[in-house]
Amino acid sequence: MSQIITNAFASYWQTCLATQAPVVLDEFVLANIPGLDPDAPINPDGALPPAGQIVHRHQVDQRGRINNDAVAYTIVMDTTLGDFEFNAMYLINKATGMVAMIVHKGSETKLKTDPLSGQVGNSLVKSMLMEYDRASEATVTNVDASTWQIDYAARLRGMDDDLRLQALQFFGPATFYGDGFKLVNEAGVYKVQPGVAYVGGLRAQLDEVQKISPGAKPVGLWLDIYRAGSLLDAWVNHFTLTLSVADKADYTDGNGYRHHLAKVAIINSDGSVIDLRRKRTIELSGDVTGKGILEDAQGVNIVVEIKTGSHRHPWSELDNVPTQATRWPNWGEVTDKPALAIEGHSHDYLDLKNLDWNVQSDKFMTGSAQAPKGSGSTQFLNWISWGHNGGSKYRHTLFSPTTAIYQLWYGFKANASDTTSPSTNARIYHTYDKPTLAELGAAAASHSHPWGQISGIPAYASRWPSWGEVSGKPGTMPPSGHTHPASQGNADIVGSGWGQVGTYCFATCIVSTGGNKGPGYAIAGSSLRAANSEDGSPGIGSALPGTWKLVGAIKGGGNNDQNTSLWIRTK
Predict the structure, then answer these.
(1) Which pLDDT value is given to residue 272?
(2) CA–CA separation, 540 and 507 (whole Å)
(3) Adjacent-strand bridge partners of 302
(4) Is the peptide bond before 161 cis (omega within 30 degrees of 0)?
(5) For residues 513 and 567, is the Cβ–Cβ distance under 8 A?
(6) Please, which pLDDT band fits residue 373 given cuts at 50, 70 and 90?
(7) How many whole angstroms separate alpha carbon 181 and alpha carbon 276?
(8) CB atoms within 10 A of CB 315
(9) For 532-544, how does the pLDDT look when each residue is reduced to its tens digit (9 = 90+)?
């Protein structure tokens, strides 16, 4: 490396001393000079290189007093600057472009962080030391460089790492909130949902949906996060989402930044997604209530309260079961037994309680009696009568008027003495004695009606439809096979017309056809004239309309009679 203070600065400095103006050097210019030898002497009259070789300009961030005759100028380039290479530095007065100091050095690369490509940027601090008589006084630099050129990086890294370890103890290696960083497959489009996560004690916040495009599957999705920044700015967490088939682990990159990784999801061969995010939320389900407390990153203490009456065990898991819970008791073990009557005993009919029958005449009776009125017969197999004692007696009789026991009638009569036949009878129908259709007033299951008995007949069932009422009619109706006489097929010609498409004409071709032509040769009617077969004239009358096709043949020579033949109009 070589460096020099230029003659231009010496002249500038003398002018500042004479005018008592401060020396102002306020900009660094970085350049990449092809073929530069960093150890070769530098011309003290050198100026800035061509614009095409200048790669970056940077305002001086700080200057400090080394001693009364030396002042240091410093710039800090963070990870937002790049990409470029430089091998020469110039300290200048920005307003005038005056070059005060030149440094030639080995080539150095400055990179910026690019989340899309995964490139991690670097931070550079560059200083140039100007030594000349009363330099600090000439530049009005009173701040000792030792107060700001101290390396606080170690202390700051220690503070950052202390905070990271505290977060790591609370959140664990990786914790995701809600749907944060959840990978979903929406119709073949893979989207990572916005949200918050902590990985390795560093907080990552995705503010909007991010699409990813997996190649070969299965493949894992990883969240890669690290903390970086410049000396003059606040350090922040940087993260990327990367796809990898192989498992990944925490690592340190080439710039010394420690990266922490967490596997977010797996995309299977069939495109389905397995969610691997670890959530901090604890959910309790079933017949319990309680709360989860995150004690540290290693485990969880859960306080659980069992709901009353909700706990269950199968019978086989019970022990010390009392005898009375294992079987039915025998007679001797039953306590407070009632006084029971002996098995064989009887009761007089009149001793029965809560009966609503008259004890003298309202018992059940069976036997023959006068045929019930209106039964149509004096014969019946049996009858049963019973009465109700409610001020006057009601006699109800169930009987069969014929020898057919399946036919039952019910008769009843209400009077004081109840000695006559029932005056009202009703037949009881049942499975074996069904009523006839006439008795029901019903028609047979299979029957018919004349048209005159039909009501509510719809219009379409009472007449043929008109043309407008027919639905689904075809748009066109091609005629079926038929014929026409010639007079109908050529009506326009019969009506004295000529020259229509499809008509013939004997005509002469009046233009050169370039040789003989046969059937199928087509030509515009403007090249044809109506002709006869006797002379070699070029035809009679004006040109023909449309386009015509040759039906015969012509030689195509110079004789008109050899160019005359039969033609048919095609267009």
Answers:
(1) 93
(2) 9
(3) 292
(4) no
(5) no
(6) very low
(7) 10
(8) 7
(9) 776 556 666 678 9
Distances in Å between the Cα of 176 and the Cα atoms of 51, 125, 170, 248 are: 50, 37, 13, 19
Say which residues have a Cβ less than 8 Å from residue 31's Cβ, sequence separation at least 6: 48, 49, 53, 54, 55, 86, 87, 88, 89, 90
In this prediction, residue 298 has a pLDDT band, given cuts at 50, 70 and 90, of very low
Task: Centre a 10 Å sphere on the Cβ of residue 420 and count the other Cβ atoms it contains.
Answer: 12
Residue 169, pLDDT score: 85
183: nearest Cα among 147, 137, 223, 148: 223
Tokens at 418, concatenated: 């109840």
Asked whether 33 and 49 are in contact (CB, 8 A), the reply is yes
Global pTM value: 0.32
Question: Strand 504-509 relative to strand 528-530: parallel, antiparallel, unpaired?
Answer: antiparallel
Structure tokens at 507: 């005509």
Q: Which residues of 125-135 are buried (b: 16+ CB within 10 A; e: fewer)?
A: bbbbbbebeeb
In percent, the amount of the chain with pLDDT more than 90 equals 36
Residues 356-359: contacts with CB within 8 Å, 24+ apart? 356/388, 356/389, 357/386, 357/387, 357/389, 358/387, 358/389, 358/393
DSSP per position, 458-508 = -GGGTSPPPGGG--S--S--PPPS----HHHHTHHHHTT----TT-EEEEE
Residue 56's nearest CA partner among 35, 27, 79 is: 27
Choice between 357 and 128, residue whose per-residue pLDDT is larger: 128
User: What's the number of CA atoms in the CB half-sphere (13 Å) around residue 422?
Assistant: 24
Q: Tell me how far apart the alpha carbons of residues 522 and 528 are, in angstroms, rounded to a whole number.
A: 11
Cα separation, 434 vs 432, in Å, equals 6
- Lookup: tokens for 288: 């319990």
Place of tokens 């043929």: 464
Comparison of pLDDT for 316 and 391, the residue scoring more: 316
What is the residue-averaged pLDDT of the chain? 79
Angle at 458 (CA atoms; ends 452, 464), nearest 5 degrees? 95
CA distance 38 to 88: 8
Distance (Å, rounded) from C-alpha 285 to C-alpha 283? 7
- Is 347 buried (19+), middle (13-18) or exposed (0-12) by CB count in 10 A? exposed
Extract the tokens encoding 122: 């670097």
